[in-house]
Amino acid sequence: MRRGASISCIVCANDYVAAGVWLEACERGYEIPRRLSVTGADSLDFPGRIPLTGYLSPSFELGRLAAEMLLEHLDGRSAEPRQRVLETTFLPGATLRKPFNITGAI
Length: 106
Description:
This protein is of the alpha/beta class. The protein has one domain. The protein is built from 2 helices and 4 strands; from the N terminus they run E-H-E-E-H-E. A 4-stranded mixed sheet has the order 1-2-3-4, with helices on one face. Helix 1 (15-27) links the parallel strand 1 (9-11) and strand 2.
């Protein structure tokens, strides 16, 4: 951002990082979400109520499946890597700019 790069959205791995990005961006004069969108994950509660947009991942289920797949591999019950897709829940907030149309107009 310091080098003048055109960044419109920062997708953060968790809400703590997103809160830090939000605070730093605001300190530097970026209007959230008009000039910069910020998203987080896992719906953490912050003092001061930063209205983050993000998603909620099924953390318990993710850990359970990972352990199950690892045990199957270690026990020789599964030689091939497997992939599972788990649903996430969208968490609306006030830090994501609405998409613009093809002409770029908002």
